[in-house]
Write a structure and sequence with these properties.
three-stranded mixed sheet, elongated, 3 strands, alpha+beta
């Protein structure tokens, strides 16, 4: 994920860009919202902009979690 933004209102809104080789599972996203809501003690919504790429994207750009050289 990148470009993560959090709107501090009720409900708390988290928006981000997700780069993936597949669409996220809606049930997993719902579970994540529930877990975050429980941990933070308030309602949370997650809004993702999904960019679908091939496996070659990650080999071309390397591990996005590593610092750039």
């Amino acid at each position: 994920m990148r470009n993560i933004k959090v709107r501090l209102a009720r409900p708390l809104k988290i928006s981000a860009d997700l780069i993936s080789t597949h669409m996220p599972d809606p049930q997993e996203l719902a579970t994540l919202e529930k877990q975050l809501s429980k941990q933070l003690g308030q309602a949370v919504t997650i809004d993702l902009s999904v960019r679908l790429v091939t496996e070659n994207y990650f080999s071309q750009f390397g591990n996005l979690l590593e610092p750039r050289k």
